Hints:
By secondary structure, this protein is mainly alpha-helical.
Amino acid sequence: KSPSKLDMSRILSMNEYYIKNIDENELFSQLTKYCEIYKEKIPNEKGVKVKSSLPFLKNKAKTLEDIYKNSKYIIQNKVTINQDDIKLIDNKAKKIVTEFSNNISKIENLNKENIEPIINDLIKTNETNFKGVGQPLRIFLTGSKFGPGIYDIISSLGKEEVLKRLGSNIT
């Protein structure tokens, strides 16, 4: 018989299951401790947003590091756009983001029900698809074309922060 082997993919798979099923208060406590030791302390006002966003931040996460990476856009005040992603921002993308920003500034509560019609209208008027609207928004809001869903990003940041990030990045 051969000796047992350490199988990291199996361990990560078990950890992913554990993360999905753990109580979110306990998960947030673990994440907070992890960040204090290995990253940066999560400021209290950002912690509230991270905690309420855990249901989608933990999606596909296998480790606390994955959750931290998914939540970095909430924790950090300034968005640094990845150089490869800057190339994806053309004049059409800037126009779409400006129109989106103007439309949401008129809305009181940002939620999927209020944002979806705006995005669908932008898709029609700019003759593009969801990616043509969602990708530039995600890049401006998080600094990367990868990350949580656009509706989750917007609701987790809140109206004031979304408008601030879109306004400062379009120019």
